[in-house]
């Protein structure tokens, strides 16, 4: 380990991204980013072309930030504190292109539709579910109408 709680701020695809990396290790060929997770699952997934939330966004951003700030990043993984398991999702920068394109289009148009993933997994932990225009709450409400 070389750095802990490492803040970052950089521009990618015209967007200013900032955050904090839990741990940055120096390896023989470059850096490895480690993100600690206290729960049972990881977050930060976006939808693929089929609407399934399975594209990791957090580690690709960390890997890109690390490359911009420190140099080559050769790996990134989640370390699950409860189990001691290391989860190594595929880090695919190209899979993030539709996200950047969609965000840019929505900002230009001023139109931000609510579009949860096909399984509505993001709705499980949503802090504004009572105000949402989609999801399980409205489905229950529709049954009683």
Q: How is this structure best described in words?
A:
By secondary structure, the protein is an alpha+beta fold. It is 23% helix and 32% strand. The protein is globular, with a radius of gyration of 18 Å. It starts with a strand and ends with a helix. The relative contact order is 0.15.
Structural descriptors:
alpha+beta; two-stranded antiparallel ribbon; 145 residues; five-stranded mixed beta sheet
Radius of gyration: 18 Å
What structural class do helix, strand and pairing data support? alpha+beta
Series of H and E elements: EEEEEHEEHH
Shape summary: globular
Please give the order of strands in the largest beta sheet: 1-2-3-6-7
Low-confidence parts lasting 5 or more residues at pLDDT below 50? none
Helix content: 10-25%
Largest sheet: 5 strands, mixed
Helical stretch count? 3
List the helices and strands and how they pair.
Blueprint: E1 3-12, E2 15-26, E3 31-37, E4 45-47, E5 53-56, H1 58-69, E6 73-80, E7 85-87, H2 97-109, H3 136-143
Parallel strand pairs: 3-6
Antiparallel strand pairs: 1-2, 2-3, 4-5, 6-7
Summarize the structure.
This protein is an alpha+beta fold and 145 residues long. It has helices at residues 58-69, 97-109, 136-143, and strands at 3-12, 15-26, 31-37, 45-47, 53-56, 73-80, 85-87. Helix content is 23%, strand content 32%.
């Amino acid at each position: 380990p070389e750095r802990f709680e490492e803040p970052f701020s950089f521009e990618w695809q015209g967007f200013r991204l900032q955050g904090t990396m839990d741990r940055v290790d120096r390896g023989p060929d470059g850096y490895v980013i480690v993100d600690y997770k206290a729960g049972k699952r990881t977050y930060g997934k976006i939808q693929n072309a089929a609407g399934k939330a399975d594209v990791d966004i957090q580690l690709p951003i960390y890997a890109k930030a690390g490359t911009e700030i420190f140099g080559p990043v050769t790996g990134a993984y989640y370390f699950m504190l409860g189990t001691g398991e290391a989860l190594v999702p595929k880090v695919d920068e190209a899979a993030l292109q539709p996200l950047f394109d969609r965000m840019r289009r929505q900002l230009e148009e001023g139109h931000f539709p609510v579009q949860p993933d096909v399984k509505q997994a993001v709705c499980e932990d949503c802090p504004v579910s009572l105000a949402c225009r989609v999801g399980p709450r409205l489905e229950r409400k529709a049954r009683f109408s």
